[in-house]
Specification:
Elements (H helix, E strand, L loop, with lengths): L12 E12 L2 E12 L3 E5 L6 H9 L6 E6 L12 E4 L6 H8 L2 E4 L11 H12 L4 H14 L15 H13 L5 E5 L7 H16 L4 E4 L3 H7 L2 E6 L2 E7 H6 L4 H9 L5
Parallel strand pairs: 3-8, 3-9, 6-7, 7-8
Antiparallel strand pairs: 1-2, 1-4, 4-5, 9-10
Helix pairs in contact: 3-4, 3-5, 5-6
InterPro entries: AAA+_ATPase, ABC_ATPase_HisP-typ, ABC_transporter-like_ATP-bd, ABC_transporter-like_CS, MetN_ABC_transporter-like, P-loop_NTPase
GO cellular component, one term: plasma membrane
Membrane topology: Peripheral membrane protein
């Protein structure tokens, strides 16, 4: 399993977000958030509950429409699409085509799996490639089977979600995202709904993806995992970026007092 065949160097920009803002009523969830992501980079978003981490992730995927700011993708789209970059200004009118184009460049792995309960594992995985990307069904099935073998779930292709453990469902969720061949993989607290003994299997898969060069943004409370896998850690609180930098620096020697307090509280995980 490898990233999309793309000749761009690792240093090439995949995504730039500028001044992302979002409010729900009087609650300002995001306040002028800037993010830069390079090809092959792993960025971990950390912070207390309600800090805006998940809203950032959903904004990058178009599941949440910001009130303002821009998101710019460079390079190629999913499935090797070479139609060029994409830039969306949320300060102007954003239509369904804009959101569809945004989603075409990334894939989300959700906290609670979000598998279709009435579909088998195989059908869950091929739904996007076949129905959205219009890829040949036989090709999508072959890719799905290869990916399931990759994560140790080849024998579960015809099972339904209710027949799987939480860890198995999350691995299917990861395969479903990979099958779309996205520029950017987004993980929203991928282990928080799992029993402790199942966390390692899912983190192991994500670690291997990082080693293979996939570009990822991961919202996580697993600070030890973030330290070993992430190139950059962004600490958020109150809808703003408090601190960012190399994982070892932010998690071992944070500069900001708020970051120090957060890391200390979870120190046993690092």
């Amino acid at each position: 399993m490898s990233p999309t065949n793309n000749p761009e160097p690792r240093a090439a920009s995949v995504l730039k977000a500028r001044n992302l803002a979002k409010a729900f009523g009087s609650n300002k969830v995001l306040r002028d958030i800037d993010i830069d992501i390079r090809r092959g980079q792993v960025v971990a978003l950390i912070g207390p509950s309600g800090s805006g981490k998940t809203t950032v992730l959903r904004s990058l995927n178009g599941l949440e429409v910001p009130d303002g700011g821009t998101v710019t993708f460079g390079g190629t789209g999913t499935n090797g699409d070479t139609s060029g970059g994409l830039s969306i200004d949320f300060g102007s009118k954003v239509g369904k085509k804009d959101i569809a184009a945004l989603r075409d460049r990334s894939a989300m792995v959700f906290q609670h799996y979000n598998l279709f309960p009435h579909m088998t594992v195989l059908k869950n995985i091929i739904e996007g490639p076949v129905q959205v990307q219009k890829r040949p069904k036989a090709e999508a099935i072959a890719e799905a089977e290869r990916l399931l073998e990759r994560v140790g779930l080849a024998d579960k292709r015809d099972a339904y979600p209710f027949e799987l453990s939480g860890g198995q469902q999350q691995r299917v969720g990861i395969v479903r995202a990979l099958a779309l061949k996205p520029q950017l993989l987004l993980f929203d607290e991928p282990t928080s709904a799992l029993d402790p003994e199942l966390v390692g299997d899912v983190l192991g898969v994500i670690k291997e993806l990082a080693e293979e060069g996939w570009t990822m943004v991961i919202v996580t409370h697993e600070l030890a995992f973030a330290q070993h896998v992430a190139d950059e850690v962004i600490f958020m609180d109150g809808g703003v970026v408090v601190e960012r930098g190399p994982a070892a620096e932010v998690l071992r020697a944070p500069r900001q007092e708020r970051t120090k307090l957060f890391v200390k509280r979870l120190q046993h995980d690092v």
